[in-house]
Specification:
Layout lengths: L4 E4 L2 E5 L10 E4 L2 H9 L6 H17 L6 H16 L6 H17 L6 H31 L5 E6 L14 H10 L3 E7 L6 H12 L4 E4 L4 H7 L2 E6 L3 E3 L4 E4 L2 H10 L4 E4 L5 E2 L16 H4 E2 L2 E2 L12 E4 L6 E4 L2 E3 L3 H9 L10
Parallel strand pairs: 4-5, 4-7, 5-6, 7-10, 8-11, 10-15
Antiparallel strand pairs: 1-2, 2-3, 8-9, 9-14, 12-13, 15-16
């Protein structure tokens, strides 16, 4: 499986997902500013991958510091974290990873000042987050595979695969694990306008793995849920509130409503780090608004009349009443989510309530 991101001696190497599927190119981010731009400009995307990348960005920034005393290094850390935190507001894994790196910094700062020792500890922590993410995704896959039909069609929206994580994937991890168990699945992938993550990334991943995939436009989802034999929907998440409301790529809410109308189970696969238990409901989740040019143009080519205004919310919120279950590395949560999610979160030593 092609790596999404990598820590190297020269910086953080990111698979440039803007170029897929036409070209497989990597962007080397030589400082934390470049890492921040890579997150903001969607070189890397997907909540878990954003979190891992941010952790590496913090480690890289401290590694390159020339601070002579702890107070100066602390100020630099604050600036590094603020710069990375400002890139994408919806994915809670970003804040989670930064908070974990801050905690590591505080621990590593005890005793006589040694910048090299602190930087080495942060590098170790970032690499631990990377390795944990892959293991977490594999655990999500194991817990979710049993929810998939033994054979038939499964619908997914956006990309919640290896490309959205450090490796293996959340929603696609569930699909990969189910296929590995011998289940005969055909995956229907929404194209996911306006950025086409489904068309450019999800079907590319599935074809790489030899998993049967069929691409459909977003406005075909209702038709196939009603007439096309779809037996389950599984998607990822960028933030999940305490009551089980789920923020995910724009268009997810529509799919969830259509799934309920057609008695098709709608599953969400996400690590516990995606839970934001400080938020009572999805009404409090900030929704990123991206440039209107992503709607009016595609790869620089206009697809709408010049000057027409366009709205471009990157995410929407699916109310928990439409969610059949939430699949995490610690198990499967079902309603009432307020209790079930807190129980799962309590099993994780790294859960952060990030508001």
């Amino acid at each position: 499986m092609i790596p999404t991101l990598e820590w190297t001696a020269d910086g953080v190497k990111l698979l440039d997902q803007r170029r897929l599927p036409a070209r497989t190119e990597y962007l080397l981010c030589r400082d934390y500013h470049a890492v921040a731009l890579g997150i903001r400009d969607m070189v890397v995307r997907g909540a878990p991958a954003i979190g891992v990348t941010a952790a590496m960005g913090v480690a890289l920034g401290v590694k390159q510091s020339r601070a002579a005393e702890l107070e100066s290094l602390q100020r630099e850390l604050d600036e590094i974290c603020a710069t990375l935190h400002a890139t994408r507001p919806t994915a809670v894994n970003l804040a989670w990873a930064i908070q974990r790196m801050r905690a590591c910094f505080q621990s590593a700062s005890q005793g006589p000042f040694d910048r090299g020792r602190i930087a080495a500890r942060l590098e170790q922590e970032a690499l631990a987050i990377y390795a944990e993410d892959i293991a977490i995704n594999q655990a999500i896959g194991r817990h979710g595979a049993g929810l998939m039909p033994d054979q038939g069609r499964v619908l997914t929206h956006c990309n919640a695969g290896a490309l959205a994580t450090a490796g293996y994937g959340t929603a696609l991890g569930v699909i990969r694990a189910a296929v590995a168990q011998g289940k005969q699945l055909e995956i229907f992938a929404d194209e996911t306008r306006p950025y086409l993550q489904g068309a450019r990334l999800t079907v590319w991943e599935l074809l790489q793995d030899g998993i049967p995939a069929r691409l459909i436009t977003d406005n075909m989802a209702g038709h196939f849920l009603h007439h096309g034999g779809i037996r389950a929907v599984v998607v990822g998440a960028d933030r999940i509130a305490a009551n089980g409301d789920v923020a995910n790529k724009i268009g997810t809410y529509s799919v969830a409503v259509l799934a309920r109308e057609n008695q098709v189970p709608f599953y969400v696969a996400a690590p516990v780090s995606t839970l934001d238990l400080s938020l009572a409901s999805g009404e409090q989740i900030p929704i990123e608004e991206r440039a209107p040019e992503e709607v009016t143009h595609f790869q620089g080519v206009p697809v709408a009349p010049t000057g027409v205004p366009a709205a471009n919310p990157a995410f929407d919120v699916t109310p928990s009443r439409y969610v059949s279950a939430i699949i995490t590395e610690h198990g499967v949560a079902r309603a009432p989510y307020e209790t079930a999610l807190r129980e799962l979160a309590s099993k994780s030593q790294h859960t952060v309530r990030a508001g």
